[in-house]
Design brief:
Pfam families: N6_N4_Mtase. It comes from Elstera cyanobacteriorum. One of its GO terms (molecular function) is site-specific DNA-methyltransferase (adenine-specific) activity. This is Methyltransferase. Its EC number is 2.1.1.-. This protein is of the alpha/beta class and about 425 residues long. The chain has two domains: about 300 residues, 3-Layer(aba) Sandwich (Rossmann fold); about 35 residues, no CATH class. It contains 13 helices and eleven strands. The strands form two sheets. Strands 1-2-11-10-3-4-6-5-9 form a nine-stranded mixed beta sheet, sandwiched between helices. A two-stranded antiparallel sheet has the order 7-8. Helix 1 crosses helix 2, helix 5 crosses helix 6 and helix 10 crosses helix 11. Bound molecules: S-adenosylmethionine.
Length: about 425
């Protein structure tokens, strides 16, 4: 994967100011195209990006020969699985057997979309980029298998409105590729910071964005599954009820709660809201990356997310694939649960970090599940509405006190309002 040496020495340094989120998005996008760093990626954008060409891609058929299996290198093998270094399209088109995969558990790059507008046009572009993967997923999945895609939403730069790209992706997968939406899940990260700060903290016209959508899809309406594999502990009130008995009666909703509710099933069925904090900042993976001066993957998901779907939808010995492997969280979870697995990743640097999850021993899954999270009821604070008027301009300008501080005109330059996608 080594690129040819640059003809001209690249010795000049230019500072580019990025927010933390922009930097992360750039890094992920750079890696997704096989570039080692942001400079290389910006050079690529500058030299090559031609949106007309991108839109013409829509009409082009995927050439399977562009993705030969020999472009994949085995990076690491374990008892149950393997990390492949290279483009996952090579695996999907030319290495995996058709109808061989029980679960595709993945989180694709979100940062590929053009930063300029991130509107519907770009949502279309994201879908176009995704098409070959959709095609490949359909080919390699078994009829009994599932496709689970964790995908974060995005804000349009400069305005407090959302891109539709992840919804468009879902619609494309269902309407054009014939996948069935088994159930959408929402991964709530309780420790997520209140972002985007401009709209949430400064202008106060939006609330904290704290969930990722997780699309659970399948080739048939009936992929294998069993929710008894993923039960959660009973609530205190349910425990009390199981201990002390329950008098069957009608609920206010009119539902007849029968005596069957007295039965202890070992736990309750979880909702499709998965509360998992993504706070791990120390641990074997991070220690290894810091010690070896390797970039820590900026967009990892927590192990409990793949664990939930792997337990729910696969059996030991089944094949789990993550085509956007990153730091191979899916792989290490599958290894622990004795599923066969394959993770593909373009960036060698991320894989050098991922190694620490398997070498010298396989990192075990966290035993401690932490306390369950609760969500406080909103509107719990008494408010005199006269003292808290609505922002009639919908947040088009900053609050006066901040305007004065910043010495800005009433309606600031739009470019100053850029919100990271
Ligand atoms: C959102 S990250 C996945 C992070 C991962 N779930 C984890 O927890 O570490 C997406 C990854 O997909 C990789 N990627 C993008 N396009 C790819 C491709 N065609 N083949 C393989 N990997 C790809 C990127 O390099 C990036 O690391």
């Amino acid at each position: 994967m080594a690129r040819p040496r640059a003809e001209n020495p690249r010795t000049k340094i230019t500072n580019i100011r990025l927010t933390e989120e922009e930097r992360i998005a750039f890094e992920v996008a750079a890696a997704s195209k096989g570039y080692k760093n942001i400079s290389e990626y910006i050079r690529f954008l500058h030299n090559n990006l031609n949106y007309e060409a991108v839109s013409k891609q829509k009409d082009q058929k995927i050439d399977l020969c562009d993705y030969p299996a020999k472009m994949l290198r085995s990076f690491l093998s374990t008892k149950h699985g393997e990390i492949l270094w290279g483009d996952s399209r090579s695996y999907l088109f030319n290495k995996a057997k058709p109808s061989s995969v029980d679960l595709i558990m993945t989180s694709p790059p979100f940062g590929l979309v053009r930063k300029k507008s991130y509107g519907n046009e770009d949502a279309d572009e994201y879908c176009e980029w995704f098409r070959p993967f959709a095609e490949g997923f359909r080919t390699v999945l078994k009829d009994s298998g599932s496709l689970v895609i964790d995908i974060g939403g995005a804000w349009k730069p400069g305005q407090p409105t959302r891109s539709l790209y992840h919804f468009k992706l879902l619609i494309m997968l269902v309407e054009e590729y014939g996948f069935h939406l088994c159930q959408e899940h929402y991964w709530w990260n309780p420790s997520k910071l209140p972002t985007p700060a401009e709209w949430v903290n400064v202008r106060r016209v939006r609330v904290k964005d704290a969930v990722n959508t997780v699309w659970w899809l399948a080739k048939t309406p009936f992929p294998k599954a069993n929710n008894k594999r993923i039960l959660q502990p009973y609530s205190k009130s349910m425990e009390h009820l199981l201990k002390n008995g329950y008098t069957a009666k009608l609920r206010p909703s009119g539902h007849d709660i029968s005596e069957k509710f007295n039965k202890d099933n070992g736990g309750s069925v979880p909702p499709n809201l998965l509360a998992i904090a993504n706070t791990e900042s120390n641990g074997r993976y991070q220690d290894h990356c810091r010690a070896e001066n390797i970039a820590i993957h900026p967009a990892r998901f927590p192990a409990q997310l793949p664990e939930y779907f792997i337990r729910f939808l696969t059996d030991p010995g089944d094949l789990v694939v993550d085509p956007f492997g990153g730091s191979c969280v899916t792989g290490v979870v599958a290894e622990n649960l004795r599923r066969r697995w394959v993770c593909c990743e373009l960036s060698e640097e991320y894989l050098l970090g991922a190694r620490a999850r398997f070498v010298p021993t396989v990192q075990s899954l966290p035993k401690e599940r932490g306390n369950p999270y609760g969500i406080s009821s909103p509107c719990a604070r008494p408010v005199n509405e006269k003292d808290v008027p609505l922002f009639a301009d919908g947040g088009a300008s900053r609050p006066p006190e901040l305007r004065r501080k910043a010495g800005k005109s009433e309606i600031p330059d739009k470019s100053a309002l850029r919100i990271p996608a």
